[in-house]
Amino acid sequence: MVIKLADNIYSPLGVTTWENYQAVMAGRCVLKQYSLPDGSLYTASLFPEEERKDYNYTFFEQLCIVSAGDAIARANIDPKSSHCRFFISTTKGNVHLLANGDTERALLGSSANIICSHFGNPNPPVVISNACISGLSAQIVAMRSIEAGLCDTAVVIGCDIQSEFIISGFQCLHALSPDECRPFDKDRCGLNLGEAAATIVYSNSGNGQWVAKAGAMCNDANHISGPSRTGEGSYRCLQALNLKPEELAFVSVHGTSTLYNDEMESIAIDRAGLADIPLFSLKGIYGHTMGAAGILETILSIQAVEHGIVFGTRGYHELGVSRQVNICAENRSTDKKSFVKLLSGFGGCNAAMLFEQTDNSTTHNSQFTIQQLNSLRINLTADELVELYRTYVGDYPKFFKMDPLSRLGFLASEMLLKQLSNQTIKQYGILLFNRTSSLADDSAFQATIQDRSNWFPSPALFVYTLPNIVTGEIAIRNHFQTETNFMVLDAPHTDIMAEQIALAAQHAPQLAGWCDVDTDGHCLAALVAVPQYTYKETIQQELNKILK
Amino acid sequence: MEELIQKLKKEIIEVLNLEDIKPEDIDTNAPLFGDEGLGLDSIDALELIVLMEKNYGIKLQDPNQGKEIFKSISVMADYISKNRTK
User: Fold this and answer.
1) Scanning A195, A251, B2, B25, which has its CA 20 to 30 A from the CA of A305?
2) For the segment A407-461, what is each residue's pLDDT rounded down to a tens digit?
């Protein structure tokens, strides 16, 4: 449990949380129809063209800096302190720069360093790039880091901007609605994309009325782009929060307005016994803001509870999912003081968090034991991965559909799990780190849209333009329905990796470590199997051995 | 038609990365999707839509149309020969 000190939303609707709340209450929205080079139409909530300029700071970095700057000032914390850490949630950061060949600045770690240096923070920033649940993953990671005493304050920034890269990718997946989206409605036909930055500052102490009480992440272990038909991961997340439904004001759902997502969420919510709880989606106002969504939607939900409101779902008219869930069409009133934020994303990942307005606080106890760790290092070229597959696996043709990053992580996990075959652990969480995110696949996808006269964005490449897909592939192969997460660092900082792996291992045993494919096709995986409650020192020692 | 069928098999193997499969392994009349035949999935279907547009100038607006067209190689070849613009 951690205390929220301050927050900010910087979106096309306003530059502060208050402006955004007022805009939502006034029914303002900037969703507008645009077209792609192939003539297909999409609707999105975007910043005006004249604001979208890259200077010394790119537009993405500007949004992060302005949003975090406002939240930090309101929180009255010192961002230069070594007891403060930055967690940045984004799926694609500066990916638009790939069109000009700027691969260095497109690296999430480089961009995060620039943002963090602006505030003079001495710690390497951790980028959480866990598809559409990144915003909740980042808050959960920040909460655990504070609870474990790694830092006193955490600045959690979520941001994504839109570009032809992202829009054409969703378009070739046929996921975009040409018109304004209609979450949970019988006529819904896809999502709208949006852009925003949002920041929450958390602390272990101080004057804050809001606490993040609990969080959970669970993988469907079903498919890398389609959600589970039984809502498995989202259901498990909701179960893990130990909710008291009578105390909930609402569940702020993902509600992307795609056929499959909304149906899946209705099943998960019904299975979790929450069918009577009011639900709303903010996607009909902001569109899907990707890396910002988990943070932006949390902040607006906090505002709603503080004002005794349950938001209506813009675009929703008639229930179009199989379960009788309680979608709010119009604003309602509430006197309850807690809510759940729910998200799901590509790679089969799901996340839920419980927030509460309170003045109580409790302390947190951790338990550690010393263990001997199993580990494995693979250091090869992308071509050699195929030989390795033929030697060690050979019976999983899906391997050939994977991008190099997924192939690498998949093979490393297969070989490590073979070493562990006599152990009793059946379910591992997966936490991987790297430097280049999904850059090799990003560049391959960019090549399919680089030439306007030969514009054929590839769906099979686009689904791999998220680094966390590799965690999904491993989860699917092994039916691991536990936590999966992906973090990007500017270098293999084994201290930071060990800390985060130890925190994750308090919840479940982990397959964790480094998994990176360079732009020149050089592959390095260094994985450790970490039993529950392992010391971070033990993990770091093992990582140092295999990452040298 | 036989020529188109052979070409299509090669294109599908390449675009869907069916590494261990050769054109002669693909039964022209077997289902492409589901547990039988090639066992392709939803992302493969989207990639086949791109293939139809890129190589044959056929634009499917509704991905659900794919369900009928991608039943088997022979159904797909038949549809392409009737609707191709390049």
Assistant:
1) A195
2) 999 999 999 999 888 778 889 999 999 999 999 999 999 999 999 899 999 999 9
For residue A543, name the pLDDT band (cuts at 50, 70, 90).
Answer: very high
At residue B6, the pLDDT reads 95
Q: Which domain holds residue A219?
A: 2-357
Average pLDDT over residues A102-123: 96
What is the residue extent of each domain of chain B?
2-83
Give the CA angle between residues A422, A427, A428 to the nearest 5°.
95
Both tokens of A385, joined, read 């991965």
Distance (Å) of CA A344 to CA A131, A229, A249: 8, 13, 21
Best A38, A40, A172, A174 member to test B by mutation, with max B CBs in 10 Å, is A174
A350 with A459, same domain? no
Min Cα–Cα distance to chain A from B17, Å: 6
Domain identity same for A438 and A345? no
Residue A423: its H or E element: none
Instruction: State yes or no: pLDDT of A188 exceeds 80.
Output: yes
Average pLDDT over residues A34-57: 94
The sheet that has A193-194: what strands, in order across it?
A32-35, A41-45, A193-194
Residue with the bigger pLDDT between A395 and A135: it is A135
**Mean pLDDT within A238-263:** 97
What fold is seen in the domain B2-83? 1.10.1200
A101 shares a domain with A44:
yes
What are the Cα distances from residue A405, in Å, to A128, A398, A399, A523, B24? Answer: 17, 14, 11, 8, 31
ipTM of the complex: 0.90
Give domain status of residue A368, yes or no: no
CB A162 within 8 A of CB A195: yes
A460·B54 Cβ contact <8 A: no
Q: Please give the model's pTM, rounded to 2 decimal places.
A: 0.93
CA distance A421 to chain B (A): 28
